[in-house]
Amino acid sequence: MTTSGKEFFPEIGKIKYEGKDSKNPYAFRYYDKDLMVGEKTLGKWLKFSIAYWHSFGNISSDPFGKATKALPWLYHNDSVKVAYNKADAAFELMAKLGIDHYCFHDFDLIDEGDDLTESEVRLQIISDYLLEKQNEMGIRPLWGTANLFSHPRYMNGAATNPDFHVLASAGAQVKNALDVSIKLNAENFVFWGGREGYMSIINTSTKIEKENLARFLSVCRDYGRKNGFKGTFFIEPKPMEPCKHQYDYDVETVLGFLYKYKLEKDFKLNVEVNHATLAGHTFEHELQMAYDNNMLGSIDANRGDMQNGWDTDQFPIDIFELTHAMLIILENGGIVDGGVNFDAKTRRDSTDLEDLIIAHIAGMDAFARATIAAYRILTESNYAEWKRNRYQSYSKGLGKDFSDGKLDLEDLKDFALEHGEPLQISGKQERFEQLISMFI
Amino acid sequence: MTTSGKEFFPEIGKIKYEGKDSKNPYAFRYYDKDLMVGEKTLGKWLKFSIAYWHSFGNISSDPFGKATKALPWLYHNDSVKVAYNKADAAFELMAKLGIDHYCFHDFDLIDEGDDLTESEVRLQIISDYLLEKQNEMGIRPLWGTANLFSHPRYMNGAATNPDFHVLASAGAQVKNALDVSIKLNAENFVFWGGREGYMSIINTSTKIEKENLARFLSVCRDYGRKNGFKGTFFIEPKPMEPCKHQYDYDVETVLGFLYKYKLEKDFKLNVEVNHATLAGHTFEHELQMAYDNNMLGSIDANRGDMQNGWDTDQFPIDIFELTHAMLIILENGGIVDGGVNFDAKTRRDSTDLEDLIIAHIAGMDAFARATIAAYRILTESNYAEWKRNRYQSYSKGLGKDFSDGKLDLEDLKDFALEHGEPLQISGKQERFEQLISMFI
Amino acid sequence: MTTSGKEFFPEIGKIKYEGKDSKNPYAFRYYDKDLMVGEKTLGKWLKFSIAYWHSFGNISSDPFGKATKALPWLYHNDSVKVAYNKADAAFELMAKLGIDHYCFHDFDLIDEGDDLTESEVRLQIISDYLLEKQNEMGIRPLWGTANLFSHPRYMNGAATNPDFHVLASAGAQVKNALDVSIKLNAENFVFWGGREGYMSIINTSTKIEKENLARFLSVCRDYGRKNGFKGTFFIEPKPMEPCKHQYDYDVETVLGFLYKYKLEKDFKLNVEVNHATLAGHTFEHELQMAYDNNMLGSIDANRGDMQNGWDTDQFPIDIFELTHAMLIILENGGIVDGGVNFDAKTRRDSTDLEDLIIAHIAGMDAFARATIAAYRILTESNYAEWKRNRYQSYSKGLGKDFSDGKLDLEDLKDFALEHGEPLQISGKQERFEQLISMFI
Amino acid sequence: MTTSGKEFFPEIGKIKYEGKDSKNPYAFRYYDKDLMVGEKTLGKWLKFSIAYWHSFGNISSDPFGKATKALPWLYHNDSVKVAYNKADAAFELMAKLGIDHYCFHDFDLIDEGDDLTESEVRLQIISDYLLEKQNEMGIRPLWGTANLFSHPRYMNGAATNPDFHVLASAGAQVKNALDVSIKLNAENFVFWGGREGYMSIINTSTKIEKENLARFLSVCRDYGRKNGFKGTFFIEPKPMEPCKHQYDYDVETVLGFLYKYKLEKDFKLNVEVNHATLAGHTFEHELQMAYDNNMLGSIDANRGDMQNGWDTDQFPIDIFELTHAMLIILENGGIVDGGVNFDAKTRRDSTDLEDLIIAHIAGMDAFARATIAAYRILTESNYAEWKRNRYQSYSKGLGKDFSDGKLDLEDLKDFALEHGEPLQISGKQERFEQLISMFI
Questions:
Q1: How far is CA A12 from each of CA A89, A317, A358, rounded to the nearest angstrom?
Q2: What is the pLDDT of residue B1?
Q3: For a surface tag, which of A271, C345, D61, D280 has the fewest beta carbons within 10 Å of its beta carbon?
Q4: Cβ–Cβ under 8 Å, residues A269 and A235
Q5: At C35, is the pLDDT very low, low, confident or very high (cuts 50, 70, 90)?
Q6: D142 - beta bridge partners?
Q7: Which of A108, A250, A300, A337 is flagged as catalytic?
């Protein structure tokens, strides 16, 4: 079902897997959805999702210039018509790419209305339409979210706004976004704290603001649970931009927050590559920090520029970096709640529609290749064993006793006195690196 | 009492306060120790401490070159004599600067011995000597710590070492360092996780390592408490260097860790300027994060270079930056447990002894001036009121109900529906900035 | 003369100097325009200029949100009326602040037309109006420039665009901008290479692009000179953003470029604080590099955030940083061709008109205070002498011979053999820092 | 010939090429030295060199700890014996790896003597020995250099020292280093300005210092040429560390300097990966800037950590990054004067000798693989053609006229008027990225 009645990407058909020697830009070279990688198919390991905002709404203005992209589905005076067209374009591209999940902010689906009531009506209309398309095509949202940062009212934050009136407006918006997400059977619901932070600490009470944030998340959670939302809530860490400092700085900061405010039962982390690097971490580090606490929810796949200090959200392509990330993901059993959402945009000067399609194909291929490489490292090499062996002293004898909490400081000293200077044990980083590189 | 029997800084006498118009490099221009600033003297607000390692042990080798500094107290073949001399130099400088606290690592006091037993004997000898000098001069340690990073055995970490044998050696060392700290009546005890982190995540189990770290801190705490240590334990966050990633990344990461492992009763934060900036934060941010949780323990005063990505540990001098930090400190009631430790070193090419003295005088003056400025901002201007007023909507009506946990998401929506679009309220950052600058 | 017939800033009159103890936010505390500082007045040292784009055109959308600022002069359907209003607002603010220079891009003055011809007509109209106002009020442009980055056609660069057609369009635009600048008696003309650089080096021939840039600048220069432009052309370095890499990276990169293409006779540098810091340099470093080559043209006054990797363009306020910059400027004789342009914007959430005024007052005061402090350091302290003395060995004997090019490598060796190991001479950075801080 | 009479790496024989499926850590998987890649063998494209300092002298102390590495060839009380052993170890490893070039600082070869004369004697002795070994084994230095940064006398710079006496000492040292380099038939000679820069700009005359640097380089060049040195002199850019700012900041800064002081005939650039990234550039960017001026001399192969702001000098392993670099190198005809020097060190905790060997093997393999991939991209894909076509508008018609310097600004405007708005042309970065990834 389409209302537009036209194809937006007529030049391509369904993208097929052709194998790694293919040079066809419109084919997968690694992403064979049904390939078994251990106990799961590639398609299950990598539950891909498209990002409604970047791929279907972003016309690429930037702080130094106007929009460059003429997306054909946006050309209509009527908001509802535009929303239908956008949905048609999105679902067409998903079908052609073989992606059956999407992620959205409330007002990606349809423009915000002039007031809350009009916005509700609009969300009602477009979600009816999307639900039909979903059912027809076997597609559902990986997650929904509310855009609490674009409207000027949020210039000083939403849940952390010094003005209760703004916080209440944000609450109203989340309620509607949750309603839509439940209706559309979204698997999860995300909070990205776009402007939850400060521009300057000199005019800010961080304590009040963070407590309000916690309370806000609690009431949202309660509402969701009361209304049948079974999925997981995600917080998406980002350290800065647009704010000078954002409260959801990185995974460990968010974890501390969630535990402090007892939100850890319902919330997990949505980890984005570019947000990790903006925070001074590798993506794999952020993943590991989440996994160490059983709190990895989902990932936002993209790529930052290590030398540009803002969110470039480029499509992922770096097979070296991705293999290291997939190694962590596979070692820890994969992504349970969420999936791999392409929170990525083609460059401002990539103005052909073709660029959008190719970016997705190349990104999916890069993830598939990395998954296969990581799996081989874990199953065909000594990697896992070497890593485990580094810690074997804690599995036996007094090391185990220490791990079991049976030793005190005097015991440690006695051991040290008795055993003298420890033997030197190389960390063997280069050997590990060589091993990994054998499989990339 | 001195064993060296000589003055190491004969060219200076006791540094006096001469007022802000003085151009005498050997006088304080702002640091009038007994000046009342509100209810406390400057000397109480700023419990200064010298750093034994930088000021008396650091001969300024760097990764690209050999030592440049010929510190006269280090010239002796005998470790004990050197240690006596060093103590004499340190106490002489403290007396002349009017500083009555110092901070030390175990093997700052005296060189590590060839084995644990010899190290113990040495620590015994030098602590006897220091205790006498302390009593004579009314000086005591602000905090002690164990150096768990310089010896090669710690190349892969101490409490997070993959080898239990190394962890046990670290335990033995902390036991002795705690014993010395208790004997010397140290007010607090610090853990700086010098190499607690990883060089590469590919050969590392962060989960095991952090759990071991938590357990290690617990047994140290237990030992201290059992043996009469009444002070506070501090963790000193640092994000990187020498490790690629250090577990005590920043204040919020450490807070999350302390709460997770239930260490928050005994541990607080020792926040260092340069470590804050290496982590991508301002110093004032890190202070605020600690205060928001009543976890600010002490500060390490120095100054980083925002454009050099390593710990430069320069002496503090930037009155603009310091006023912002002191504003946070005064707003939050000052530093309760610890003080202001000059974890700062003169540049490698500042090779005159004079440079060391002047660096301290200028640093103390800069802090004093910032304290006075911050106090005036808080008491003579509208600053505090303006800041408070930004949040007044949470002190009354439904805003207060929200703060008190009485509203749910539907209530927020009802409020939003009823009240319509919020009025725009400027954040007024420039007005705040202007106000602060009026008092610097 | 105004066409709007109204005051846009009715709440303020002419801002007066009230002295440093004034707490009036609408008064200068340091900026006494006529105060003699050495041989020049403060007003001459600091030839302030307002930035037409930030202060009168910027409504503060950002990559994550819509415009927040409702500037009253922009509310009209007719481009010409808006342009008249904007001019009225700008000239009113300049008069009230006592600023008699402004800087503009072509399409700051009036919106770009639908085609080149319409744009020309519009520029003709608005420049007539501005010229009248200028004459009436004794105001003139510090510099003009052409906006070669906002229009989508420039998405891949202007003078460095791979497509000659775009380069030609840029040429047409510069011609008109130069014509307007000459007509308005602009003192200088700027090139900021907004998108002259690359998004990715993999699709870019940097060699062709930079050669085209040089040729483009040459033909612009030739046109200007032929048509009576007597001022200096400026290049404004910036390292990145919006491009991944911008060719005018920093002062030294631009200097190399200017010398290589023999443009150094007509071009100098316009150095911006925030661009300096984005390039990994201090502002004072960039100033010094320009002065060392007699190539400092003008400065763009603002302030970056050292921890946010994009151009925040905040208003300057940091007295410590500014004193260091003014020290370089005064040591080198001041700014000859240009002035001090406030290329700064109030924060996105500073939405009161008052904020704009206060930001300017505070920024002017900060510069004035820094100028006075720097002057005192240079005239009342040993600073200049100490610095000169460090290099005295090159003013006499063999050191001078070396400076004069009379020694060869064997001579150096003979000297070294004869004189043995050099004495160690401290760099005394802390002593210099203390001295400077005595005057801030 | 060895004086030590023993093998230092007895556990390995000559490393062989075994093909990409080999999992033998002591074999090459891609580096088949004799494989023809276009018109040259892999061995010719990649003239590998070992770094005497990192691999044979570095015992891995760091700013936070003591040396960890017990290199067996260093254990002797006699400097000459140590030097012989070191040479034996170095030449043994080169032979086993199939590397026939090495790079050295003067005092890598043998410890500096107590005075200049003793140092000369020592250099004489060790260079005799090395010359014999070179002749026997067909090995020669890729380049030599003088270490002008480790000795305390250079704490304020060598050629840029404020004290002429130090500059003269540096001259003496370079003379000897040049003599040794000529004697050993070194292909090139490098200047890395270790401490040529400043710790603080407030006590520094950058103008005097840079002029002295230029003069110093000139007299060194003159001496070399007069004494038969036929190779190229290289400057190795680095932006910072140990200095706050180093004058040889990056490639373009150095180029500007070389042209300004007319040194460009004899000097080229030695570009290091980690120095590029410290300067905020990619390695490929720095290579391209050098090539665009025919000034690429040689490369220092290693890998930085984008999130740690100091020189980590890790061994190269990232196939994605290296392919992009080799693409630039191959597009520009390869490295003419120099080669690929492993200026890389195993991590401080990689304490097995095996780690050093494996690091080299893996690094050589990574470069070989990248070279092959880049060659295929250039010869088997449309990459070069696509890139060329982007600029085709400058090869014909008025675009060509512009390139040929035949158009003025009015001509550009006429063209723009006549042709109207340019068509939008996508930059197609994602398509380029996909293409490249097909060959990695």
A1: 13, 21, 11
A2: 64
A3: D61
A4: yes
A5: very high
A6: none
A7: A108
Nearest CA in chain A to C155: A349
Closest residue in C to B19 (Cα–Cα) = C438
Q: Verify whether residue B76 is a known catalytic residue.
A: no
In which element (H, E) is residue C385 found?
helix C383-390
Q: What dihedral angle (degrees, nearest 10) is formed by the CA atoms of A312, A314, A320, A324?
A: 70
Question: Three-state SS across D198-236?
Answer: ECCHHHCCHHHHHHHHHHHHHHHHHHHHHCCCCCEEEEE
Taking alpha carbons only, the member of A301, A234, A312 closest to residue A278 is A312
Alpha-carbon distance of D347 to D362, in angstroms, equals 14
ipTM of the complex: 0.97
CA distances from residue D401 to A210, C215, D415 in whole angstroms, order as listed: 62, 11, 12
What's the half-sphere exposure (Cβ side, CA atoms, 13 Å) at C211?
16
Are the beta carbons of B219 and A409 separated by less than 8 Å?
yes
Q: Are A249 and A205 in contact (CB under 8 A)?
A: no
Shortest Cα distance from D356 to chain A (angstroms)?
A: 8
| Structure token digits, residue D366 | 């990574």
Residue D105: active-site member: yes
Report the C-alpha gap between B287 and B326 in whole angstroms. 10
Interface of C with A in 235-274 (CB under 8 A): 240-242, 244
Q: What is the pLDDT of residues B29-58, one digit of tens each?
A: 999 999 999 999 999 999 999 999 999 999
Please give the structure tokens belonging to residue A356: 């959008």
Continuous segment of H or E residues that includes residue D378: helix D353-380
Q: Which residues of C touch D328 (CB under 8 A)?
A: 201
Which residue type, as a one-letter code, is found at position A294?
N
Q: Among B105, B275, B285, B324, which one carries the catalytic annotation?
A: B105
Q: What is the pLDDT of residues C170-208, one digit of tens each?
A: 999 999 999 999 999 999 999 999 999 999 999 999 999
Nearest to C433 among B351, B362, B435 (CB): B362
Q: How far is A201 from chain C (nearest CA, A)?
A: 13
CA distance B225 to B220: 9
Taking CB atoms and an 8 Å cutoff, what residues of chain A touch C278?
309
Q: What is the pLDDT of residues A160-179, one digit of tens each?
A: 999 999 999 999 999 999 99
* Beta strand pairing call for C40-41 and C36-37: antiparallel
User: For residues C39 and C45, what is the distance between their CA atoms, to the nearest angstrom?
Assistant: 10
Return all residues near A392 (Cβ < 8 A) that are at least 6 apart: none
Ordered DSSP codes for B95-138: HHHT--EEEEEHHHHS---SSHHHHHHHHHHHHHHHHHHHHHHT
What is the DSSP annotation of A21-85? Answer: T---TTEESS--TT-EETTEEHHHH--EEEEHHHHHT----BTTB------GGG--S-HHHHHHH
A331 neighbourhood in chain B, CB within 8 Å: none
> Looking at residues D290-301, what average pLDDT do you find?
98
**DSSP per-residue string spanning C207-275:** HHHHHHHHHHHHHHHHHHHHTT--SEEEEE----SSSSEESS-SHHHHHHHHHHTT-TTTEEEEEEHHH
Measured over the CA atoms of residue C323, residue C328, residue C332 and residue C334, the dihedral's sign is negative
Chain A contact for D391, CB < 8 A? no
Q: Which residues of B touch C365 (CB under 8 A)?
A: 437
- Please judge whether C429 and D203 are an interchain contact, meaning their C-beta atoms are less than 8 angstroms apart: yes
pLDDT of B372 higher than 70: yes
Q: Is the minimum CB–CB distance between B416 and chain A shorter than 8 Å? A: yes
Q: Across the interface, do A65 and C310 touch by the CB < 8 Å criterion?
A: no
Task: Please name the member of A362, A381, A426 whose beta carbon is closest to the beta carbon of D437.
Answer: A362
Residue of C nearest to A59 (CA): C152
Q: Which two tokens mark B126?
A: 């030098």
Taking an 8 Å cut-off on Cβ atoms, the answer to whether D351 and B67 are in contact is: no
Q: Note which residues in 156-215 of chain A have CB less than 8 A from chain C.
A: 156, 194-195, 199-200
Chain A: closest CA distance from residue C332 (Å):
33
